[in-house]
Amino acid sequence: MDPILQVEGLHKVYGATVAVEQVSFEVREGEIFGMVGPNGAGKTTTIECLEGLRKPDAGRVRVLGVDPHCEGQNLCLRVGMQLQQSNLPDRMRVWEALDLYASFYLKPADWKELLVELGLEQKRNTPFSKLSGGQKQRLFIALALLPNPQLVFLDELTTGLDPQARHAIWELVRAVRAGGKTVILTTHFMEEAERLCDRVAILDHGRIVALDNPANLIHSLEAEQRVSFSLDDGLSPALEKALSSAGRLEVQGERVTVHGKTDRQLPLVSEVVSLLTGQGTPFRDLRTEQPDLEDVFLSLTGRALRE
Amino acid sequence: MKSLLKMTWMEAKLFLREPVGAFFTLVFPLIMLFIFGFIYGSVPPPPGSDGLGAIDVLIPALSAMVIGITGMMAITITMATYRENGILRRLRTTPVSPLIVMAAQVVVVFVMTALGMLLLVSAGKLFYHVQFDGNALSLLGGFTLGSLSFFGIGFILAGLLPTARTAQIVAMVLLYPMLILSGAAWPRELMPATIQKVSAFIPLTYVVNLLRGLWAGQPWSDHLLDVGVLAGMLVLGVVISAKTFRWE
User: Which of residues A201, A219, A237 is at a domain's end?
Assistant: First the structure.
């Protein structure tokens, strides 16, 4: 099956700043594809080149088989877009926005149904400026779905939302995909990429530093699992010797951390707990830490994502 | 076509929901009329003025003021705000053309301007029994020409200036002296002769002259200069505003 979107050697420069450098990837039909990275990594520039809003300096972009910059008018009938910085007039009501935007398309989706699906029915007469951040984003998703698009672009959809609203938006994005649409999104939340996306491209300084599904990315790290706990009586030499067989030990006062590789048969935590109980040692505050995409980013770039 | 109708209707609702814009277009000119009416309303027509009193001259002049306000303030501020806030950016991702966006503005602001003039004329008839010697269709024609030629200035200012705030300030700085010097807000005859000479360089002067003339029943042929200047502004306005339009 042909990919729904292809990018080869995308390059974009603003003045002396290289915003996007040699970016290439493909998006398959029906997947949720994420671009993740810190602010200024080139996510928005890339997605805007795909949307036809910016002209690439070099490289080849095909979206649904056409060049988005040259055939934007044709494409905007088949593609839905939610932009990072866009607005509606303050005093425009929710239903008016949907009604107006529906009139731009020959065969629009039924906006009254979208109103219900996106949970905006209660707000149909509310002016845009009186909506919460999450409600505004839901309205923008509804506007993006009006053309009955095959492909939906979502740029920083959940930035500035509280966790509850963010989780609700994730459900909506999954529902959009379940409706047979392909989704391309950008985010600077690693958790969002990990939980929502089928495949993730990690961007840093305008380049793709990794591209795979989240599980593979995390697995490729061969990162450590960590189990830490506190001992009231301190670490006895016998226990230290036994725990060392599970992984490297780090002791800070009464707090002990065991670092172990991910590719093991038993989870590290069960091994550590059985060693502790086998010795009859009382312990408390046991915590485990799994590596996540945040660690992948750290190991690829040497920096934490949120600084 | 359907989107033009929807967008025009939407913009009309938004215009009326914005109290400041509606006030300056519909209410403020009436206040000016009543202030002048209070001062000059009972003064008999001066000799040599064809029997026209201050209020008779004032109605077409204040109509020109409405044109100045809507053309330079309403259009400039709306378009600059739409661009700065990303409202145009959102529209850009749809198949809608910039022409439809601009046409909806023109229709709505024109209708509001006409409404402003209608209120002025009605109030003049009702309270001051103003004398109208012209042809209503002819006056409407002059009013349309004056309005459209001024709307171009609004689109150009909105296209050239970087933010909504600067657009608003520049529009005000240009508009206020224009209202005084053109004789739109203040009878030009009351100003010193040297200042009256400056008014030849003020675009709004030509709207005032044309409307006052048509109001008094003068033929179009007496106002070829006014018509020429306004038609020139209209053509330039359309060409330049098409070139200066920016989605973001």
Answer: A219
CATH for A231 = 3.30.70.980
Same-domain pairing of A147 and A188 = yes
Q: What is the CATH number of the domain that holds A93?
A: 3.40.50.300
Query: In chain B, what are the domain boundaries?
Result: 2-37+52-244
Comparing CA positions, the residue from B67, B16, B97 lying closest to residue B207 is B67
The number of folded domains in chain A is 2
| B27: CB partners within 8 A, 6+ apart | none
> Are B87 and A51 inside 8 Å of each other by CB?
no
| Residue A301 located in a structural domain | no
| Judgement on whether residues A237 and A205 belong to the same structural domain of the protein | no
Take residue A205 and report the two structure tokens written for it. Answer: 């300084």
CA-closest candidate to residue A230, choices A258, A264, A196: A258
Do A190 and A305 contact (CB within 8 A), yes or no? Answer: yes
For Cα atoms B152, A97, A54, give the angle at the middle one, nearest 5 degrees: 65
**Range 140-169 of A in CB contact (< 8 A) with B:** 140, 143, 147
Distance separating alpha carbons of residues A137 and A134, to the nearest angstrom: 5
In a domain, A298, yes or no: no
| CB atoms near residue B97 (< 10 Å) | 14
Q: What are the b/e assignments for B106-123, b being 16+ CB within 10 Å?
A: bbbbbebbbebbebbbeb
ipTM above 0.95, yes or no: no
Is A304's Cβ below 8 Å from some Cβ in B? no
Residue A307, in any domain of the structure: no
Q: Does A86 touch chain B (CB under 8 A)?
A: yes
Last residue of a domain, one of A173, A198, A219: A219
pLDDT in tens, B59-74: 999 999 999 999 999 9
Q: What is the span of the domain harbouring residue A195?
A: 5-219
In chain A, which residues have pLDDT < 50?
307
Pick from B6, B89, B95: which is nearest to A77 by CB?
B95
- Report the alpha-carbon distance of residue A186 to residue A184 in Å, rounded: 7
Residues A38 and A143 occupy one common structural domain: yes
A296 within some domain:
no
Tens digits of per-residue pLDDT, B174-223? 999 999 899 888 777 778 888 888 888 999 999 999 999 999 999 999 99
Indicate the residue of B6, B17, B86 with minimum beta-carbon distance to A87: B86
* Alpha helices (H) in B85-135, listed in sequence order: 87-92, 98-123
pLDDT score, position A177: 94
Closest approach of A42 to chain B, Cα-based (Å): 19
